[in-house]
Amino acid sequence: MKKSVFLPAVLCTALWGSAIPVVKRGYEIFCIAGDDTAARLFFAGMRFTIAGLLVLLIVLIRRETPFFPKRDALPGILSLCAVQTVMQYVFYYLGLGNTTGVRGSVLSATSTFFAVIAAHFAFADDRLTLRKSIGCMIGFAGVIVILSSAGFGGQPITLIGEGFMLLSAVEQGFGAGISRRITPGRDPIAITGWQLSIGGLILLLIGLAGGGAGGITITLPGILVLGYLSLLSAAAFTIWTMLLKEHPVGKVTVYMFLIPVFGSLLSAAILQENVFTFRNLCALVLVCAGIFTVNHSKT
Question: What separation, in Å, do the N-terminal and C-terminal C-alpha atoms of the chain show?
Fold first, then answer.
């Protein structure tokens, strides 16, 4: 286990895992009403616009690639922006307000399985293998457990809660396929910066058009939360991209099983949710085992 991979990868997964409880706490700090869709999207738009600009600042400082994308890269960036920023986070921010942090963490982690399934149909060199298939089945078994009320107890599921979180995971999984198709020969950090900036601006404008700015109360704690979430996205995406550039993909992505672990534990710490129920632990173990199985490689 190389420390050069281990420490940055764990840092990224911890940052991504913290996003769900911090976003949910952000709803409280910004005094966003439970039914105020526009305010939630305005909140998301602010976060990703700032995050994208921070990533683009890194591109500008590095000066390793052109700052502005070439014309032939624009269709791919816009496609990625539409799927992996706009659609993914519309479902994410709306769904997260209607479910628990633990459920959100587990369901969001299923993007790994949707990415594997999408890659099977999109890329001839990335077909489903027995190992990946078993990993997906284990992971989706965890989803069944977290959503089941029979034998495990728990609150009912809803389309605008758990359903939207699953749709967000689907969008993220498909976005991973688009990203893989458009990044060869281009700077992935620059693509990420433009994707987040444009997508964040679109979310911001949608929220603004719906009156979302009026549904948010600006306070110093709120600014700190927004700053953390923006830095989280910028730092995690940049570090993860650099890891993928320097190391074999399997050696990096195998750590993704830690994201729902951090998400669940931090939901317990920040939101005072009860993580340690039999159902939650079973679901968490199954999803983490599925992610590890899908991404584990002997190479």
Answer: 12
- Read off φ and ψ for residue 123, nearest 5 degrees: -130, 125
Q: What is the pLDDT of residue 118?
A: 87
Instruction: For residue 254, give the nearest of 289, 296, 285, 290 by alpha carbon.
Output: 296
pLDDT < 70 positions in the chain: 1-3, 149-155, 298-299
For the range 63-72, what are the long-range contacts, defined as Cβ-Cβ under 8 Å and sequence gap of 24 or more? Answer: 64/187, 65/186, 65/187, 65/190, 66/190, 67/190, 69/186, 69/190, 69/191, 69/194
259-192-25-224 Cα dihedral, nearest 10 degrees: 120
SS3 204: helix
Q: How far apart are CA 284 and CA 286, in angstroms?
A: 5
Residues comprising the chain, all counted: 299
Q: Give, in order, the Cα–Cα distances in Å from 241 to each of 35, 95, 146, 152, 289.
A: 36, 27, 31, 39, 24
- The predicted structure's pLDDT at residue 54: 95
Say how far residue 277 (Cα) sits from the centre of its chain: 24
